[in-house]
Design brief:
Blueprint: E1 7-9, H1 14-24, E2 28-31, H2 37-42, E3 50-53, E4 63-66, E5 69-73, H3 78-83, H4 85-90, H5 92-98, H6 104-109, H7 112-117, H8 125-131, E6 135-140, E7 143-148, H9 149-152, E8 153-155, E9 158-159, E10 166-173, E11 180-186, E12 196-205, E13 208-217, E14 224-225, H10 227-233, H11 240-253, H12 264-285
Helix pairs in contact: 10-11, 11-12
Flavin-adenine dinucleotide binds at residues 29-37, 39, 74, 101-102, 106, 110-111, 113-115, 117-118, 120, 123-125, 161, 166-167, 191, 193.
């Protein structure tokens, strides 16, 4: 399939990119790794008249530590996350999740900014960002604002981004030393999007869960924070009855589509299993 015609722009600064997006209007789209946008264009499901390629904007690249926060530029690729010592040390769940995205070819091009800005319920990073309490920096012609990942997703492909705004970086508070983490993803084959996936970040004290965040991928039109499921495990040692209670609380908020990955009941059932597995694996890693 061949995309429709479009004009191509390659700005060198965030200011120039924002100016282009504002001048070109609704028919302009930012282009990051292109691994979601270009397939949509080839299928003619997206027909932007103007592509503003962000690859020339050096300020959108890189990973840096600012106190107790890791700040990742939007154009940082999944491959660069995997290669980063800082990420390996501070945010190992990001490594675990990035490795479950597609294949090396996609990870060499796909960016964290494109993954979280796209609003595709099948993308893996958004739920993880919710579990980690991350926020996104959005810049537009009228200035910059920070939006929590948990407030960003409003519907499938519908986010808090205003027309002409760019997501320029992702800020992630570093979880405490000794935290446990796991991203469990069920997929039909290597390289596939999730049939169901769950991210867990927790801490343990005296053999009991002290804090816990659980988030879900591809089990609704948006990623979900499973708050009741997380509450159900606080103060417990994750005995089998508690795990089942947490899975049931998570299933209660799921509303997946019936599609080639399975009927609704199946996807909810395996979603609950992903929650139980992630909780157990995260607890096993906590110290
Ligand atoms: P692009 O495709 O360039 O952009 C995506 C959308 O976001 C576009 O609408 C674009 O305008 C907008 N956008 C991009 N950057 C910004 C920004 N900084 N500010 C505002 N808007 C922006 N992803 C997963 O999470 N899990 C998977 O299992 C998975 N499997 C895949 C398998 C295949 C075969 C392919 C081709 C892709 C797969 N993906 C998967 C998607 C991949 O991770 C994409 O790279 C990612 O979703 C989008 O990132 P991108 O950098 O390619 O963005």
């Amino acid at each position: 399939m061949i995309p429709g015609p479009f004009n191509y722009y390659r700005p060198a600064t965030v200011a120039d990119a924002l100016k282009l997006l504002s001048t070109l209007g609704d028919e302009a789209r930012p282009l990051a790794g292109g691994h979601s946008l270009v397939p949509m264009m080839k299928l003619r499901l997206a027909t932007p008249e103007h592509l503003v390629d962000l690859h020339g904007v050096a300020d959108l690249k890189g990973i840096r530590r600012e106190g107790n926060t890791v700040v990742i530029g939007a154009m940082t690729t999944q491959h660069e996350l995997l290669a980063s010592d800082e990420i390996g040390r501070s945010l190992p769940i990001l490594d675990e999740t990035a490795l479950l995205i597609a294949d090396p070819q996609v990870r060499y091009r796909g960016t964290i900014g494109g993954n979280v800005a796209n609003g595709d319920p099948g993308n893996d990073m958004p739920a993880l960002m919710m579990a980690l309490g991350a926020s996104y920096r959005l810049e537009g012609k009228s200035g910059a604002r920070e939006v929590a990942a948990s407030e960003f997703y409003q519907g499938a492909y519908f986010t808090a981004l205003e027309p002409g705004e760019l997501l320029t970086s992702v800020a992630i508070p570093v979880p405490s030393a000794g935290h446990g983490y796991a991203y469990e993803k069920l997929k039909r084959k290597v390289g596939d999007y999730a049939t169901a996936a769950a991210a867990v970040v927790l801490t343990m004290a005296g053999g009991k869960v002290a804090t816990c965040k659980i988030a879900l991928t591809n089990l609704s039109e948006t990623p979900l924070l499973a708050e009741d499921a997380a509450k159900a495990v606080i103060g417990t040692s994750l005995d089998p009855a508690t795990l089942k209670k947490a899975a049931a609380a998570a299933e209660a908020i799921m509303s997946p589509a019936a599609d080639a990955r399975g009927p609704v009941e199946y996807r909810k059932h395996v979603g609950g299993i992903m929650v139980m597995r992630a909780l157990q694996r995260a607890a096993g890693r906590a110290s």
